[in-house]
Amino acid sequence: MDVPAHQPVHRPLIAILTMDDDEERFRGNRSNFVDLIRTGAEMGVLVCVVTVNHLKLKQKRIVAYMYDPVTKTWSQQLVGLPHVIYNRIPHRQDEKLPEVQKALKAALKHPEIKLFNPFFFNKWSLFEWLGKGKTTARYIPATRKMSSLTELAAMLRRYPVVYLKPILGKAGKGIMRVEKIASGAENKTEYVLTVQETKGSESYKFGSIAQLWSNIQKETEHQPYIVQRGISLAKHRKRPFDLRLLVQKNYRGEWAVTGVGARLAGKQSITTHVPRGGSIDDPEKLLASAFDEETAKRIVTRAKNAALAIARQIERKSGHKLGEMSMDIGVDVQGGIWFFEANSKPMKFDEPHIRKKSLERIIQYALHLIRTNRAKTSGISASD
């Protein structure tokens, strides 16, 4: 294969890392990649796409995909080794592959390359890490690993509603809710299992916890799950909502809140995820409808502070350099703040002002990494 060399440039080079694809050449959200390439160009940074198979770090030049905004086409070109690698391996199963693990480890060890967000988060690890933090434990709902009926029964003794969530889940897929109710004149205990479907949910009633457990096992297909206390979320027009926060490192390498959005649950949904029927809305509007305008502003401020504390704790406990994460933060009927989920590879935020800032922050943080790495290797202060 004859691959033209990209003209030598002194601009910083950022590589978006993804998987090879036999038909499409590479996988991932191409419009996302193009947006980042355009933002990089505006900020004097060259951004390319590199696949795992082409990430040969022992060579001086590697094959990369470059985008031409005039012809709107991709071409393969030879480039020097990137200064920063932005990990966008699209799926957990991809990330587990030996060749991917090998490539990530090689990039993490390379003295002249900085890679951030090296892996997807594990839900159980997140709750363990955050539950041990002095500033973050208060935001964590009671959570257990659900390896047997014992854990589920213990949680249902303490809480009338619990949620079951796949440890390796994404975008609300596989989430279930269990509600314990008293039925009939004898106040007989029954259990209602609600299973999240693609755009709605299905509910099933069971007379015993053994029947409930049997059906849960069929639904989970023996995937690892957590069981978590159900939080009574604030509602807008009888529909629960939660907050989505994007937290990223800025040009100083410090965590900052890029934006706050809100997601309103679909009419027949037990989650607020947009792929499961949820919708995007304005956080202050929803909070003001559930509380009042002043309270809404205070809650947003508290949610931002919580998100920053959570991001710092996750990064500290992960032992790796992280540059961004999105978070689901719940607000209960009393205005309390609760952490539900964090994603190390955030999906695109559709709110335009958040979207623009998010792209700029990725480039800013990459420039910070380059600046501090050069200062380290030359033995001078990054601020000089």
Provide the fold topology.
Blueprint: E1 13-18, E2 20-21, E3 25-26, H1 30-42, E4 46-51, E5 61-68, E6 73-80, E7 84-87, H2 92-95, H3 98-109, E8 114-116, H4 123-131, E9 143-145, H5 149-158, E10 161-166, E11 176-183, E12 188-196, E13 201-206, H6 209-220, E14 225-229, E15 235-236, E16 239-249, E17 255-264, E18 279-281, H7 283-290, H8 293-318, E19 324-331, E20 337-343, H9 352-378
Parallel strand pairs: 1-4, 1-7, 7-8
Antiparallel strand pairs: 2-3, 5-6, 9-14, 10-11, 10-14, 11-12, 12-13, 15-16, 16-17, 16-19, 17-18, 19-20
Helix pairs in contact: 1-9, 7-8
How would you summarize what this structure contains?
By secondary structure, this protein is α+β, with helices and mostly antiparallel strands. It is built from nine helices and 20 strands.
Describe this structure in words.
The relative contact order is 0.13. The chain folds into three domains: 13-116, Rossmann fold (3-Layer(aba) Sandwich), CATH 3.40.50; 123-140 and 233-350, 2-Layer Sandwich (D-amino Acid Aminotransferase, Chain A, domain 1), CATH 3.30.470.20; 143-229. Helices cover 32% and strands 30% of the residues. Residues 380-384 have low confidence and may be disordered. The chain starts with 12 loop residues before the first strand and ends in a 6-residue tail after the last helix. With 384 residues, it is of the alpha+beta class. The strands form five sheets. It has a six-stranded antiparallel β-sheet, sandwiched between helices. Strands 15, 16, 17, 18, 19 and 20 form a six-stranded antiparallel β-sheet that branches. The chain has helices at residues 30-42, 92-95, 98-109, 123-131, 149-158, 209-220, 283-290, 293-318, 352-378; strands spanning 13-18, 20-21, 25-26, 46-51, 61-68, 73-80, 84-87, 114-116, 143-145, 161-166, 176-183, 188-196, 201-206, 225-229, 235-236, 239-249, 255-264, 279-281, 324-331, 337-343. The protein is built from nine helices and 20 strands. Helix 7 (283-290) packs across helix 8.
